[in-house]
Structure formats: structure tokens, C-alpha cells
């Protein structure tokens, strides 16, 4: 009851702050495939070792810390573990290339898989393809607050392990997979239990 009350309270706080309610819907997981880009849903990577690197310009010590902190959070909350730095820098099969991109307009960040493998059956686009390498872009022109930076990094990393945008129900709404700005609170820089279970399962699902 206490957990449910906290979730409802968080939802109410968002409604009061941002003026929208939380419609009920399913929570898709890991549905992205090479020929089927499901909006707002991530793809499942090839294994639990989530290697990453930094590409491009603009990286400061503070931005490195944002990414390192949220990759460590993935390690601490799930069965994933990261490898950093990558020998010889970014490679095509590095699981996540992080980039800072101020040209994204009002978009806070995004994720896309740039390299898919053929899955266990070895057949391309047969439904079991896994992401060998993804790119996450973060927008420093919009993300000027440390809390929002960490929340967005957590959110995009979540897509890189298959998580979807926060689908607004009391069961799995109150974490960093919520889409857009969030109020203060550490919960918005973390994954809730529902999303942790999804990430650990590595099994595509629509609920």
C-alpha cells in the first residue's frame, strides 16, 4: 500500500506540475527490429556486456560524469555490466556510442540502433535480431540542469536495453522512462522494478 501511495502521489505531482493525467496502456518491451522501428520502444542488445564510448565534440568532465553515473546505475539495478573505456576507441560493435548534439532542436535526446545482427537463427529480419551497436545523442542546449541530464541519459540507456517510453500507469510510470521533463527526485534518474524485470528478461513483450 505504501508503494502504491507513493506512485499515485508522484503521478499527482506530475499532473499538478505539468497539467496532464496518466492514461492506462500496455508497456511494450524490446520490439524494435531492423525492419520494424516501433516509436518510443528500444531494441534488445546482443548481450549483457554493455560497452560504451564517447564520440564527437563538446564532452566535458561534467558530461562524462553524467553518462558514467547512469551506466553505473544500469549495472547496479540490472544484470547488465559495462566495459569502459573501449580499447582503441569506438568500434562498430561498441554497444553504445554517446554523442552530444546541440542540433536536435527541442529534442532532449534520442537512441537508434545502427548495427543489427541476425540473431540466434542467423536469418536477417526474422524477429530475433539483436542490436550490436547503438547511438545515443544528448542535447546540451536543452539539458542544462544536472537532474534533467541524468534523467535523460538514464532514459536513452533504457531504450538501448529494450525499454519503452513511460507508458502512464501506476505500475510502471514513475521512473526515468517517463518522456520529457520531470520534477525533482532521485526516482526519475532510476528504473522501477517493472522495467528492471523487463531489462533482465531480454524477452520481447507487449505488457
If you had to describe this structure to a student in words, what would you say it looks like?
- The two termini are 22 Å apart.
- The chain contains four helices and five strands.
- With 207 residues, it is an alpha/beta fold.
- It has a five-stranded mixed beta sheet, covered by helices on one side.
- It has helices at 2-18, 61-77, 146-160, 193-201; strands at 49-55, 81-83, 96-100, 109-116, 131-138.
- It has one domain (2-201): Collagenase (Catalytic Domain) (3-Layer(aba) Sandwich), CATH 3.40.390.10.
- Helix 2 (61-77) packs across helix 3 (146-160).
Q: Which SSEs are present, and which pair or pack?
A:
Blueprint: H1 2-18, E1 49-55, H2 61-77, E2 81-83, E3 96-100, E4 109-116, E5 131-138, H3 146-160, H4 193-201
Parallel strand pairs: 1-2, 1-3, 3-5
Antiparallel strand pairs: 4-5
Structural class: alpha/beta
CATH architecture, by name, is 3-Layer(aba) Sandwich
The N- to C-terminal Cα distance equals 22 Å
User: Spatial order of the strands in the main sheet?
Assistant: 2-1-3-5-4
Under CATH at level 1, the class stands as Alpha Beta
CATH topology: Collagenase (Catalytic Domain)
Shape: globular
CATH superfamily: Collagenase (Catalytic Domain)
Rg computed from alpha carbons, rounded to a whole number of angstroms: 17 Å
Average pLDDT, all residues: 87
- Regarding quaternary structure, what we see is single chain
The helix tally amounts to 4
Question: What's a quick, concise take on this entry?
Answer:
Helix content is 28%, strand content 15%. With 207 residues, the chain is an alpha/beta fold.
Amino acid at each position: 500500500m505504501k508503494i502504491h501511495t507513493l506512485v499515485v502521489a508522484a503521478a499527482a505531482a506530475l499532473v499538478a506540475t505539468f497539467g496532464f493525467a496518466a492514461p492506462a496502456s500496455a508497456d511494450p518491451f524490446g520490439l524494435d527490429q531492423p525492419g520494424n522501428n516501433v516509436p518510443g520502444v528500444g531494441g534488445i542488445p546482443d548481450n549483457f556486456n554493455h560497452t560504451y564510448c564517447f564520440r564527437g565534440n563538446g564532452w566535458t568532465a561534467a558530461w562524462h560524469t553524467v553518462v558514467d553515473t547512469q551506466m553505473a546505475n544500469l549495472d547496479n539495478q540490472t544484470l547488465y555490466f559495462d566495459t569502459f573505456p573501449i580499447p582503441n576507441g569506438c568500434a562498430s560493435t561498441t554497444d553504445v556510442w554517446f554523442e552530444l548534439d546541440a542540433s536536435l532542436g527541442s529534442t532532449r535526446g534520442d537512441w537508434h540502433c545502427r548495427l543489427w545482427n541476425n540473431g540466434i537463427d542467423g536469418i536477417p529480419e526474422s524477429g530475433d535480431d539483436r542490436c550490436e551497436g547503438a547511438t545515443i545523442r544528448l542535447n546540451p542546449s536543452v539539458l542544462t540542469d544536472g537532474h534533467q541530464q541524468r534523467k535523460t541519459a538514464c532514459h536513452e540507456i533504457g531504450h538501448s536495453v529494450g525499454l519503452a517510453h513511460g507508458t502512464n500507469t501506476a505500475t510502471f510510470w514513475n521512473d526515468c522512462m517517463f518522456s520529457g521533463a520531470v520534477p525533482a527526485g532521485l526516482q526519475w534518474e532510476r528504473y522501477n522494478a517493472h522495467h528492471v524485470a523487463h531489462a533482465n528478461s531480454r524477452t520481447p513483450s507487449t505488457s
